[in-house]
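ok so for the tutorial part 2 we go from a plain amino acid sequence to predicted structure tokens. step 1 is just haveing the sequence, like this:
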Amino acid sequence: MVVWNILFATILLPLVAIALLWRRPRQPAARWVATLVLAAGIAGFSVLAAPWGWFGVPLRFVIALLFAIAVVMSLRNPPQPDATPTSPFRILLMALIGMFFGVVAIGVLRAYRVPFGAIDVGFPLTRGTYLVAQGGSEPAANYHAQHPTQRYAVDLVKLNAAGMRARGLYPNDAKAYAIFGETVVSPCDGTIIAAVDAFSDAARISLDEKTPAGNHVTLRCGDVDITLAHLQRGSVAVRAGARVTRGTTLGRAGNSGTSTEPHLHIYAERHAENSTTAVPLRFDGRWLVRNAIIRK
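step 2 — the prediction. this is what the tokens look like for a chain of 296 residues:
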């Protein structure tokens, strides 16, 4: 069911909306505008907010291209004076649906705003092409934004040669995910304050609510604590109290703790006497938002 829902929202629904626009002449104007808003909103949602690591990143650009072609084709279509009139209710409904999806797409664009106080660190993975599954400063691009202490957390997956994060859409085998077993390195110079390596890796979905970070490493970089979570069991290569430099191997990406699939979860916090504040991170100078691609 999860796969079909994501397939529908990511590919099937945008293709239907684009096809409607492709066939729609620009007269009568109200119907054309409503169809344009519908297609633009749904296509924008698909291109910006959908999880493209599931189906292959190249398809993302196909959706964008098809929408652009549909706009041109609709403008070239001759008027249809004998066409059955479209009811005002249907026109309004189409526009509202498009606006709903469009608001989400605009939220993703707003997520590119870099919050005040962001600090620069190194990218914590090596060798390969990676995709941001969750990231940015708005909930539309990053569901972690709803959690005060992890509002700037980033989830990373690796892409294979087909531009997909796994062999298959949602395989029930952790080893089928490209990131599983990839080397995780320290994003900064600092001191290890926690290193946990005691939890098994789940095949796919792990709902260990008691230890949500699973196997993880937390290091103190200046006055900020950075945690890298869901590491592979048996891979953690450092101990609490050790000093590390940027690029030091910490472990390997896994699927422990609370996790929907193998990925690397990284976030930063600053602790005061009675409070904990989320700290935004820039990686190698980049502010990472959902569907951003990093090549190493």
